[in-house]
TrEMBL record:
Belongs to the prokaryotic molybdopterin-containing oxidoreductase family. NasA/NapA/NarB subfamily. The keyword Manganese does not apply. Keywords: 4Fe-4S, Iron, Iron-sulfur, Metal-binding, Molybdenum, Nitrate assimilation, Oxidoreductase. Pfam families: Molybdop_Fe4S4, Molybdopterin, Molydop_binding. It comes from the Bacteria. Residues 8-65 form the 4Fe-4S Mo/W bis-MGD-type domain. InterPro entries: Asp_de-COase-like_dom_sf (IPR009010), CT_Nitrate-R-NapA-like (IPR041957), MoPterin_dinucl-bd_dom (IPR006657), Mopterin_OxRdtase (IPR006656), Mopterin_OxRdtase_4Fe-4S_dom (IPR006963), MopterinOxRdtase_cofactor_BS (IPR027467), Prok_molybdopt-oxidoreductase (IPR050123). Its cofactor is [4Fe-4S] cluster; Mo-bis(molybdopterin guanine dinucleotide). This is Assimilatory nitrate reductase catalytic subunit. The keyword DNA repair does not apply.
Amino acid sequence: SIPVKAVKEWKYTTCNYCSTGCAIEIGLGEDGNVVTSRGHAGADVNRGKLCIKGLLEAELFTSPGRGTLPLMREKAHLPFQPTSWDAALDKTAAKIKEIQAKYGRDSFAVVSTGQLLTEEFYTLGKLVRGQIGTNNYDGNTTLCMASAVSGYKRSFGSDGPPGCYDDFEHTHCLMAFGSNLPEQHPIIYWRLKEALEKRKFPIIVVDPRVTMLAQFADIHLPLTPGTDTVLINSMMHVILKEGLEDKAYIAAHTNGIEDLRTLLQDYDPKTAQHVCGIDEDRIRQVARLYAKAPAAMSIWTMGINQSTHGSDGVVCINNLNLITGNIGKPGGTSLSITGQCNAMGTREWSSCSGLPGYRLLEKEKDRKTVADFWGIDESFFPPARGLAQTDIFPAIETGEIKGLWLVATNPMTSMPNQPRIRKAMEKLEFLVVQDVYEDVETNQHSHVYLPAAVWAEKEGCHTNTERRVNLTRNVLKPFADSKPDFWIFNEMSKRFQDRNVIHFPPTVEGAFNEMRELSKGEGRTLDISGMTHARIEAARGIQWPYSEAQAAEDEARIGAAEAGHYDMLRRHDFLGSPRLYGDGKFQTPDGRAKLIPVRFVNNNECPDGEYPFWLNSGRVVEHFHTRTRTGKIGNCNKFSPTPYMEMNPDAAAELGIQHQSYVRVISRRGDAVVMVQLTQRVGRNMLFIPFHFHDCVNRLTLGLLDPYSRQPAFKQNACRIEPIDQQ
Ligand code: SF4
């Protein structure tokens, strides 16, 4: 049970774990310390609810392992020496300059995370592009969301999930691809259940594993891993053959239907069933259900994105929704559910492939706009996209990258093929790790450690899955001598003014105002010019685009920008843009969406005689990412203390493996020892291991990359099992 203690004051902020974006209130006691947390009843997103992680936030702020002061050492693995902030930042800046002078500007790379605040992404991006002078700057969101970004861009001409949670209230059919909401996004799941209590509609879940969402579904399609594009193409084959498509929508708003129609002739359910493993009649049934629904929506998470054809999977989902006229209307959408709290923020304001505000690196006009705004020459940063996170580690192996700055990301647990990553880390000439926790596994390899403040000690914005910009308020002072990431980036920029003199606003709101200015422009989707921190807080989040003109209209309608008035606007759904493309105009040159034919190529690592099992990985509800935070929370660990492997009882019986015995799992990359949990959740030739634990499933994963998004395949690996003699 959660101890209830006297709360003197409740402070509003936003939960910093997953991308749901729950509004949370932190309860402070007499002494100003955090004693508990609760959901904010007035917020649209969570309506007073929190999941276990949000409810246990109070334990986080005093958890062990927090960095208290900067540390340095000459060589990785030697004992650290405490140092001052000035010395640590001076050393880092000097090493970056030394490496770049010796090997070229692109020999240094920066990887951040989906857990920073948006103003921090923007500031770090400005420092890396405008002063350090490289495009080798990526977010760890390449491990989770890059395929969604790429798929949206290919279909609609721009990134940005077009739907929102409110679509659950309007849809007549929901299809979930590789998304296990009850464990990954419990409050989005609760929103879905709330909608179902008001009005029944069918839920179809596509997943090789019987997940908690699959248990709840009306129809579960346990497809062969990595064959989603075959299933969706086959559904579209049925829809076009039976004339169930939305002909008017296709004619008015899309290009490419004839090429798509030609390709889909090869995806008759009669033959497709042998590839995707779903019976032909079932394929026809769900195709008809989806196409005949007055509004139907698709959601997806890592089951689609973390694949060698993740981007193609997203394009197929978009094709399905375009041909059925399910984009931009209430209950009809293609909604990627993002992973980290601010995965959207990295997409919007910084990545190796784009410039702030969804401006394009390869577009001369966008490069000039950004460079002029910062007051530098656009030739300073190159027009070619930089290395994605997943390309940075191979580049370390080849010697192309010599130095690395990691911000709140833990590749020594999160990256696939860990034996290879470990070797790469050992080759770095210089590694700086900036993190809340000193004991994060990756810090074993660093030369400088910079202790960062935890989210509730900082101020700034998040964008959640439905494009809602939420505000995080600093409810606490930074712990010991840790500093907000925003402060660290600004201090570092002072050490690069010799390269380019750039103004960095000293306040977070100042940085936000720069972002508002950069986001302006006719027809831009990512327009946040009408937002201010005060408006966002009063409205409990605003969905972009929200232009100055929209804000002026809202203010005129209500009369003033006071909290109570914004609250009224929010309740009447007037604030911001719940959906994109409702007018049928897309971000392509001719304003029409692209129907892109996608042919399935089987490049998965499939089971064979030597490695007979499919290995899948995913989340459990108690933990977040690599457990840097939840691993320190008592009740999260009590409920999920150790890695385990789900195995089918019949397969286990054949190998003489008992429930709760230990086995060695072996792939072509490495091996790991785990405890077996026998369950019918997985089929006879399938295994599942949660990804949160160090030295476990990612010692086995292959990590082949999607050619468009550079996102790795975590979920389709071949492996074998050896029982361990317990005597
Ligand atoms: Fe936090 Fe996500 Fe849980 Fe909401 S669902 S409380 S955002 S972890």
